[in-house]
Records
---
Amino acid sequence: MNYDCAVKGENISKKFKTFTLDIPDLRVPKGFATALIGENGAGKTTLLNMLSGIRLDYKGELTFFDKYSSEEKERRADVKNRIGYTGTGRYYLPQWTVSDVEEISSLLFDNFDRDEFERYCRELAIFPDSPDGVALKKKCSALSDGTRTKLMLAGVMARDTDLLLLDEPASPLDPLMRDKLCQMIGDYISDGAGEKSVLFSTHNISDMESITDYAIIMEHGNVVECGFVEDLKEKYILIKGDAQDAEAASKILYTMTKNPYGFEGICLAENLDKLAGMNVSKEIPSLFQISVAVMKNNTKMVLK
Ligand SMILES: Nc1ncnc2c1ncn2[C@@H]1O[C@H](COP(=O)(O)OP(=O)(O)OP(=O)(O)O)[C@@H](O)[C@H]1O
């Protein structure tokens, strides 16, 4: 499938004392929602920090919107303004009030819309007890983790951007709000008519699967699998079989869970013929099942 890229990376690398991120070829397709998946410490935040400009001390070439180098993106306000970012840390200072967030955002970003910000505050039910749905005097330090994340999302959604980089946006959110987040990302992509893209890291793969078009799976600083979800669901197959075939199948399956009656696991579609003669059924795996299989197959952790 041919597609343009919101971000392209060539030979991206960053060395820490005990960790190296090394990605020869990174592609974030334009017009889609991309999930960045990987175990703790795989390098997702490090990569998002590079893309957002928080971290510039890396090697390699990044190209934004098929046109702008990382340096150009940092230098040109018109390009930087097209990119929105939310992180997991204390992005807004604790002493800031919601009014400060609004004020500072409108000073920092040309395209920040105060009415939209307040609309998102109401839509995300950030201040359900406030009569107008926006508690401008409330300090960030008085907000829960989830509410702070919702405030960051309101702040970034209130800007006119073409690329959202969201680091773990779903983690602190309750299930209702994860659903809302999916809806917001879905609307952002569809309103963008092929021009707007989202890259979000997540451990909540199942909750975010409905809006994930493309997935990048990382392990220990490397991309170990990537592709459109519909293609991954053809590349990998969920196999269920009888207990008597479990041992033979375990040599072919990426991962296997067993019980006294049978087994299930993920295998590459290209290896299906190796299961010939076994009494197995085939199903389309979920992105969660594919991700766990790929992560288990590539992890350097000792899993017991
Ligand atoms: N400033 C730093 N100095 C040294 N090592 C660092 C630094 N920042 C990150 N690392 C290391 O880089 C690795 C990747 O960290 P990163 O936060 O990118 O992982 P992650 O995939 O986002 O993890 P998680 O899912 O737990 O949030 C880790 O081993 C971490 O210890």
---
Amino acid sequence: MFARRIVVVGTGYVGLTTGACLASLGHRVVCSDVNATKIEQLNSGEVGIHEPGLAELVQEGIAAGRLKFAVGSADAVAEAEVVFLCVPTPMGSGGAADLAAVESVVREVREVLPRGCVLVTKSTVPVGTAARLSELVGRPDVAAVSNPEFLREGSAVRDFLNPDRIVVGSDTQDAAERVAALYARLGAPTVLTDAASAEMVKYAANCFLATKLSYVNAIAELCERLGADIADVTEGMGYDRRIGQSFLQPGPGWGGSCLPKDTAALLQVAEAVSFDFPMLRATISANSHQRMRMVAKVREACGGSLDGVRLGVLGLTFKAGTDDLRDSPALEVARLLAEEGADLIAYDPGLRGDEPGLPASLTLVDDPYLAAKESAALVVLTEWQEFRALDWGRVAGVLTGPVVVDTRNHLDPDVLRRAGLSWRGVGRTPVPAM
Ligand SMILES: NC(=O)c1ccc[n+]([C@@H]2O[C@H](COP(=O)([O-])OP(=O)(O)OC[C@H]3O[C@@H](n4cnc5c(N)ncnc54)[C@H](O)[C@@H]3O)[C@@H](O)[C@H]2O)c1
Ligand SMILES: O=c1ccn([C@@H]2O[C@H](COP(=O)(O)OP(=O)(O)O[C@H]3O[C@H](CO)[C@@H](O)[C@H](O)[C@H]3O)[C@@H](O)[C@H]2O)c(=O)[nH]1
């Protein structure tokens, strides 16, 4: 294997994982960022995000001399053979992906990229972006390549090093092959395409996953109305290998930093080419409905009104195993509960307590029993493993109302029943207290 000189621009979940993992594969990597404080911390081996194994890989990379960090990108790219763009592409106006950060990096580096360098977008970008960036760079010796990333937060390192597939697309095949070769040691199936198809794979995959979840959440609602049990239904569906067991867990709706913005962006792209996409619109609107439905469940469990009601909340991050609150359905449900007048006492093992943007009527505590104390009901919004192991007898002792609303079907209703608590989940028959 040839070790390559690589620059990764952006040191967030994707960029830092990419940089540290590529260094662990033997490449020489410089990770650059506009955030000087972040770079200072990284230089001393400190990783500010919660990703299992990432801090260790960063420290190993630094110690081996294969991983370095830099503020700004122009100097960093001076000797690069491959430059990965891993900067944010947030939801912009009308739902479109905002490419300002991507374009600003390209403007910053275009004149200083070494001859024959490959410019790779790992950020999620709309179809046509590689072609647009090629024009923006304006140099025939620099090829643009799309190499979408499929890692999940909370398992970023594991996903990066054990990918289901690697997708690399370019209108310059030789450049695509050079990028694919960086991953050769992973032995993953590799799909080589043109640039537009690689860009499309990312949106098609994320929107498919979102649609799968909206579908499951709708089936769960139907189960409630018809007296079926969603856990049995998804188990029965999932054994069909064409469906698969994963991504079938109902919840308060799907969220995070990717699925919401990527569904909105594909819808916007479709509209731009006059393609009506009612299926994707329904996927998105079903997700808003799901959040409202969880609020209605809590309201009903509390006797019809939430005004002045104290609620304990377990979990605010968009899923377990991350500290990320971006587009969190849990946080959105908490906001909606607060809007109806509830006072929220929340506990989340992933949060430190200094996170901005929490509702004013929400108090974050560092102990789940404090969240339950004197609350009229306990609402589980994120599926942290440790919630299962709580002393439910102790929880029952401090709650003023014996009700748990479990929007993730995460707890064992039988354990709660024996502890004297009633359980209400999603798509399953409620279980009254013993
Ligand atoms: N988070 C995920 O799970 C995930 C997975 C696959 C793909 N993606 C995509 O990857 C991209 C990055 O996502 P993320 O979650 O890693 O973002 P992030 O917000 O965690 O990190 C982005 C980093 O880029 C830096 N940055 C911003 N502008 C910059 C600039 N002009 N120059 C240098 N650095 C700059 C920021 O300071 C930050 O450190 C997005 O397009 C996203 O859709 C994300
Ligand atoms: O059975 C399930 C699985 C997930 N979720 C929810 O769906 C959302 C997204 O979860 P997940 O996909 O695990 O999170 P991300 O880390 O955002 O990863 C998604 O978005 C990334 C960014 O594009 C992609 O790289 C990944 O492949 C894609 O899974 C979260 O709110 C989860 O709680 C469910 O409700 N039920």
